[in-house]
Amino acid sequence: GEEVAQTPKHLVRGEGQKAKLYCAPIKGHSYVFWYQQVLKNEFKFLISFQNENVFDETGMPKERFSAKCLPNSPCSLEIQATKLEDSAVYFCASSQFRGRNTEAFFGQGTRLTVV
Amino acid sequence: KNEVEQSPQNLTAQEGEFITINCSYSVGISALHWLQQHPGGGIVSLFMLSSGKKKHGRLIATINIQEKHSSLHITASHPRDSAVYICASSTQGGSEKLVFGKGTKLTVNP
Lengths: 115, 110
Known about the structure:
The complex is a heterodimer. Chain A is mainly beta. Helices cover about 0% and strands about 50% of the residues of chain A. Chain A is built from no helices and eleven strands. The N and C termini of chain B lie far apart (about 40 Å). In chain B, a hairpin with a 2-residue loop joins strand 6 (about 50-55) and strand 7 (about 60-65).
């Protein structure tokens, strides 16, 4: 597609429930990034993929968070046993290249509310 | 560790005014991005630059690599420019993840 498509737009989960977020990158883009935005303007990098391979997972919480990018499927970010502090907007971005040509295109985000 | 600082945090202007938002970063970068986030939450990429200056309509972005500093200028500001402007950098030789500044909330009054 021509834009990064994230679903769902909003997700409400009770504490302890599982949350699964999806991201379809722009067709032809090899890199996918997940970011968490809390407190309006604080962005935290979670994980990136080069095609279906994990590229950088230094931002992923060791427990409860997992992510995948499988061929011919949207990428996914899954949170097991959600906690109140997981409430945030999760953005996915994709880019075609690395280095100086790495323009990032962002999805509209998924707002996760844990109650 | 790369840190990105933006100023000002909040900016209120009258329609027609010239706006400047500043961004400084601490380590060598492969690219500097200027992003716009509207109240609805979506993020739009305005510029990506690694040297010099870029212009798009009323928006101009400049970067000084030696001083590790970038500016975003808006000429003839308009109420529809009201948004949060975020600068983000990707580190040289790194994984291309973005490190974000805390954003500048711009309000342009008619």
